[in-house]
Amino acid sequence: MALVSTSVEASVGTITLDHPAKHNALSAALIADLLEALNGLVGAGVRVIVLRASRGAKVWSAGHDVRELPTNGRDPLTYDDPLRRVVRAVKETPAPVLAMIEGTVWGGACELVMNCDLVVAADGATFALTPAKLGVPYDMAGVLNLMRSVSLPVIKEMLFTAEPMPAERALRLGLVNQVVPVDQLEAATRDLAQKITRNSPLVIALLKEELHVLSGASYLSPEGFERIQALRRRILDSADYQEGIRSFFERRAPHFEGR
Ligand code: YXS
User: Fold this and answer.
1) Is the dihedral of CA 53, 54, 58, 63 positive or negative?
2) Model pLDDT, residue 1
3) Ligand 1, from 106, 136, 140: best to mutate by most atoms within 8 Å of Cβ?
4) Beta bridge partners of 17
5) b/e per residue, 158-178, with b = 16+ CB within 10 A?
6) Which residues line ligand 1 (CB under 6 A)?
7) Residue 201 Cα distances to 18, 178, 206, angstroms
8) What is the mean pLDDT of residues 222-251?
9) Which of 80, 89, 254, 98 is nearest to 190 (CA)?
10) How close are the terminal C-alpha atoms of the chain, in Å?
11) What does the pLDDT read at residue 220?
């Protein structure tokens, strides 16, 4: 069963996350369907892609599938992991990807949304970055993706507190482009998409790639890379990492001991 559905109307392709039983958790299976849908819409020549959840969703996406967070010491966020692949795909798709947000967005899904090209949110939406709550040693590619979306103090607050940020505040901080009443969400997203489809798709694809390449022009020494990987490895081997995941399944607050 496909965990996403797609549609095309007037050069705008729409991908709907459609696994409500698991709150659209970004499992490997859902991401495989999402990547296939993205490729299909690019092949169909759409000029804008809207990424949404089903109408009325209380949770847009619950983030990385916690059941797929390895507890055997393997790193859950390496280059070829599903979350890394889908965030790259969204950033590299020539057509702009508009995230249309209704409900709550968690963890890796927040990174996915923050790396879409534009975000239109309903006024009840929230955005939560959860590595510190779950004890997950987020990876550098992910942190870099987040750093580019808002200022350092804002991303530190979101990461250190893991608290959901309301859409209105996200708008003031530049994390989203528009916040509208939920009954105007589809019309506002469609209107924004149509304004884009009227302009040159070649130039828009070039501008998107120029912004992607130039925003990524930052230097990291090999020694700096290795040092951070060593820090992440220690956390993957820590009791806190196991505690974070166990607390989710036991539906209780985690008790981290810093070891
Ligand atoms: O018990 P069943 O089988 O019905 O399944 C439950 C949940 O286990 C499942 N579910 C998830 N399964 C895998 N991964 C998830 N992230 C996930 N979230 C939910 O969906 C079924 C219904 O969930 P339930 O009963 O909790 O629904 P609720 O309405 O009471 O609460 C909705 C949420 C979203 C508040 C709650 O499900 C929740 O807090 N989910 C986890 C949100 C979160 O912390 N996500 C971050 C995942 S880790 C991640 O993205 C990165 C690796 S990181 O952490 O580093 O950012």
Assistant:
1) negative
2) 65
3) 106
4) 4, 53
5) bbeebebbbbeebbebebbbb
6) 22-23, 25, 59, 62-67, 104, 106-108, 130-131, 134, 136, 138
7) 29, 22, 8
8) 91
9) 98
10) 41
11) 79
**Domain at 4-180: CATH architecture:** Alpha-Beta Complex (3.90)
- Calculate the alpha carbon distances from 247 to 31, 47, 132, 241 in Å: 25, 43, 13, 10
pLDDT at 16 over 80: yes
Q: Determine the average pLDDT of the residues in 200-226.
A: 85
Query: Measuring from atom 27 of ligand 1, which residue has the nearest CA?
Result: 23
Q: Is residue 137 within 8 Å of residue 236, measured between CB atoms? A: yes
Any idea which of 29-38, 163-172, 177-186, 207-216 has the lowest mean pLDDT? Answer: 207-216
Residue tagged 């619950």 (tokens): 62
Q: How many angstroms separate the CA atoms of 257 and 236, rounded?
A: 14
User: In the beta sheet, which residues pair with residue 105?
Assistant: 61, 127
